[in-house]
Amino acid sequence: MKMFKWFLLSEEDARLLAPIKHLLPDRPANIYAWLPTEWDGSNLRKNFDGVWTIKIETAFQSYGIMWNDFKIFGGSFGVRNSTRLCGFLSQLDLERHPLFMSFNTIGVRIMEGRQVFPFAFKIIPSLISYSKNNMLITSNHGKCLGIGALLYILGHYRMALKDTSLINLTGPEVFKMFFGVGVDFDQHFNSKNMQLKTSMIHEIHQSNDEISDKFKSLIGLRAQHGIDTEMGTVSEVVLDKLFDSRMEIFSQKKCNVVAFIARKSNIDVGVVVNPLGKGNMIDTRTISKYRDALKLFKRLNLPLISIVDTPGADPRSTETENGIIGDIAELTAEIIDYPHPKIGVTAGRCYGGASVLMIPTIYGGAPSLAIKGSHMGIMGKQIIRHLLSGSQRFLDMWEAHSAYEEEMRDLLELGLFEGEFDLDGVSQRLDNFLFGTEKEEAIVKIQNGIQIKIPMTSKRTMRWQNQ
User: Fold this and answer.
1) Separation of alpha carbons 403 and 388, rounded Å
2) Rounded-to-integer distance, Cα 422 and Cα 63, Å
3) Strands 203-205 and 157-161
4) Is the confidence at residue 252, as pLDDT, over 80?
5) Segment holding 211, helix H or strand E
6) Where are the domains of the chain?
């Protein structure tokens, strides 16, 4: 016998969802609650038992919401609501819906004793399984303690409120018992400090409305064309030429790459780009952001375009101690395993181990493109001449190879590059990459979190519809 099922909520029931009004769609929608089969329609908030499990269905996109109600047992995870949440995740996974989880919880429901552990901690494998197939966006609108913190960090995109969010494995009362009152819990574990010192939080926002706007943009329910970046004039000119519109993601994570969900010829693509003409050494923070972007793009089923202008990986001792060698190896594995079409574009420099960002054909990428004036190699020519200056024989060997590298003849023969082009030429070849040379099909739409293909003879629709 089924323990839970979907209940279509009436308008009167829906009014009880006022705390999450910002998460509801602007357009007409059906709202369903995942509740015990014996629910008789009364006391909706009480029956949610501190963990709201809701599905929103619109004509364009459907999605799930998990929201902690702190007024009910501190939004804690107990035996019954944890069992219901696991069933909710399984159902959303079957229907392939993205999920927004917003936390304000003390963690497991300690009032129920240790019996709660196998039920509450079963949520973790259930959420991991769900997130392998679907987009998971997490947010923190209050306390995010204990198991709440473990669930929060599983999100592909993680946000928090500026003034009210706290994240830690335990609460302030227990913390003070063991570490004394001299430590300010709120100061150490607020969202701003946690974003600064850890990789847990991608973005901090002033209000729940801002968080819901970003969520709706990510799942395609709200257009977001305007962006404000610090990339510089050169970058903006190149990006404006290559893409019709773009939305920056992970914008608060400052490093030597910028990531976008962009639209080109009515197709959504994932873009990671170095700010062109700047220093751009690849460090651990840059790799971390690149990996976050890959995870999100993978869940959205987006083709990947990597635009590279970097002198290479940062060789300084601080970066080696931070684990950059292992990070590059792991990023390489993730680029190789990226399951959707992928291509690299050199827009300046591409040297050394950083060439992994070019997604070469040996890593499953399409033949790369180069913007005219780009430079590629093991190292810059001036550096190589300095290294080989002590051996005329070695220098002559390199000079002979270097002459053959003019106009990319070596890379073209190896099939690693398609060629060197001006911006119009690169734009045209990116269209060929996205549509295929015969233009039989194109990825054109997100439906229930999955991009689908339709014949080119059909009317193409855009993921970000005009509002």
Assistant:
1) 16
2) 42
3) parallel
4) yes
5) helix 208-218
6) 4-218, 233-455
Q: Are 431 and 341 in contact (CB under 8 A)?
A: no
**Which of 339, 251, 260, 345 has the alpha carbon at shortest distance from 303?**
339
Closest CA to 423 of 273, 243, 155: 243
Widest distance between CA atoms in the chain = 88
Tell me which residue of 199, 105, 86, 100 sits closest to 146, measured CA to CA: 105
pLDDT of residue 136: 97
The reported pLDDT for the residue numbered 171 is 83
What is the DSSP track for 187-199? HHHBHHHHHHHSS
Task: Judge whether 430 and 305 are in contact, CB under 8 Å.
Answer: yes
Which among 250, 267, 272, 297 has a CA at the least distance from the CA of 462?
267
Binned at pLDDT 50, 70 and 90, residue 439 comes out as very low
Lowest-confidence segment of 23-32, 218-227, 330-339, 406-415 by average pLDDT:
218-227
Closest among 464, 340, 452, 450 to 93, alpha carbons compared: 450
- Please check whether the two domains, 4-218 and 233-455, share a CATH topology: yes
And the tokens for 440? 């039989």
What topology is assigned to 4-218 in CATH? 2-enoyl-CoA Hydratase; Chain A, domain 1 (3.90.226)
As a whole number of angstroms, the distance between CA 202 and CA 422 comes to 35
Residue with tokens 């079957």, as numbered in its chain: 94
Q: Do 133 and 154 form a contact (C-beta atoms < 8 A)?
A: no
**Residues listed for the chain:** 467
| Nearest in space to 123 (alpha carbons), one of 150, 169, 81, 86 | 86
Distance between CA atoms of residues 222 and 248, nearest Å: 14
Closest by CA position to 130, among listed 151, 105, 108: 151
What confidence category does residue 222 fall into, taking pLDDT thresholds of 50, 70 and 90?
Answer: low
Q: Are 405 and 238 in contact (CB under 8 A)?
A: no
Interatomic CA distance for residues 127 and 41, integer angstroms: 28
pTM of the model: 0.83
State both tokens at 348: 């300046």
- Arch. (CATH architecture) of 233-455: Alpha-Beta Complex (3.90)
Which pair of structure tokens corresponds to residue 106?
Answer: 């003390």
Q: Which are the contacts of 154, defined by CB distance < 8 A and separation ≥ 6? A: 124, 127, 128, 131, 136, 138
Task: Give the H/E segment covering residue 258.
Answer: strand 258-264
Q: pLDDT for 33-47, tens place per residue?
A: 999 999 999 999 999
